[in-house]
Amino acid sequence: ALAGSKDSKKKKKKGLSKGAKAESKVAKESEAERAKASAALWEARLEVTEISRSEYREAARVLARNNEELTWQQHCLEKDTVEVISFLKKQDVEKEEQIAKLKQQIADLKQQAQEENEKAEHYSAQLKDLEEKFSKKAREIGLIQLELKTIKEFRKKKAHMEKELEDIKENMRISNREHQETLGRLENRFIEEKQLLEREAEKKIVMLAERAHHEAIVQLDSTGRAVFKENVRLQEALAYHLKETEELKKVKQQLEEDKAFLLQEKETNETLVQEKVRQVTLQKAQIQALQHKVERLEMALGHMTQEFETEIQKTRHHALVQNQAGMVEINKLQQLLEMKDREMNRVKKLAKNILDERSEVESFFLEALDQVKREIVSSRKCYKQVAQVAYQKKMMEAFAGKEEYPKIRTFNSNAHSTNSVYRDLQEAEKWTNIQQGKVDIGQLTWEQKECVLRLLFARMNGRERRLIVDISSARGVCLFPVNQKGNGFDELITESWSLKLEIELMSRVAK
């Protein structure tokens, strides 16, 4: 009995251990399935993330390439702008030289014009009396010429009017002949059509009578209907012919009215022809009287012409004497002008030296600006790359769950972006980080250095003063204008050299 109880206890323990093992096996299988599902889910997420990451990298590379192209285009445009500005400044200098020459020429021309005006006033006083005499005779000659012009115009109009009258008569004859021919044709056509209609009507009546007789014999029932239809058709044909007859009558009446109008116009034209013939007769008499008057005036004009030529010869002799005196004065002025030209050449050499020195300063300054721009482009490109790498690193850490996702940041120049890398680049141009007092040039950013160089260039352009050469026609003195501080030509040269040294020092520090 004890052995049997022991065996039963052992069997119970074995059954319990087998059930626990089965439950643990089921639990492990469910955990493995959940792990597989979670792994598949994370693999899908990882694949989607890798795809979006590759697309983002490709878009970033395209944007970087576009940005580099735009930067290069901007650099080329700035370079072209600088070249155009230098070329325009060179043209301004040449134009200023031309303006100075033209001013001198204008002064000489004004002096010559003044002398000529004085001579003209002297001559005008002498010619005034002759002009008064000549004006009286000219008025008389003008009246005669006006009358002659009227006569010539009438002669021209006479032939034209006669030709118009002949044309009107010829047109009237042609119109009458055409009217008669048209009227005859219409009457003949009306009679022929009337006769034709009558013959056709008679033929149709005979044919209808014969047809009615035969049909009456064959079909007496349909006789009334056929006769009615034929009567209706004949009535329509008769109405059409009557309407055409009325239209022909209207055309005939219109032609008769046109004929009456043409006859009336013919009578009016004949009356006008008679009136024009009477006017021509009167004008012929007036022409003969005016011709006699013209002959008398031509004789008087010949005498006046001889007197006027005598006065002109006297005036020419007097003008020749005055011209000889003027030539002596001109020789003196030419000698004075040669002295002024020598003085002008000396001033031009000085101005050329100043312009050459300034061109050297400008070229040196432009090279410094170009180098600073290249440094700005390089530093911005490096900053963008570093910022992009840091942003991608934060996104990967946030994706891994180590920290929160950062704010969305753009790496292109979008005006509507609230967190763009270009805003950081714009902050480099501000002066908020500079304290008052002495500032070391090494503490400035490349954008601030560029601003300083541009301010120096603006200062140089502000200090530049034009060299104006004014050769006085009375004294022959070369004058240099002073600037706002009262400095003269020597002070201008000193300022240009000091400004050149400042720019050279600033560009070396920037490098």
UniProtKB/TrEMBL annotation:
Residue stretches in coiled coil: 85-203, 238-353
Residues in domain DUF4515?
84-272
The answer to whether the entry has keyword Cytoplasm is yes
- Entry annotated with the keyword Cytoplasm: yes
> Main localization of the protein?
cytoplasm
| UniProt-annotated stretches for the region Disordered | 1-33
Similarity remark? Belongs to the BBOF1 family.
Q: What is this protein called?
A: Basal body-orientation factor 1
**Protein source organism:** Chelonoidis abingdonii
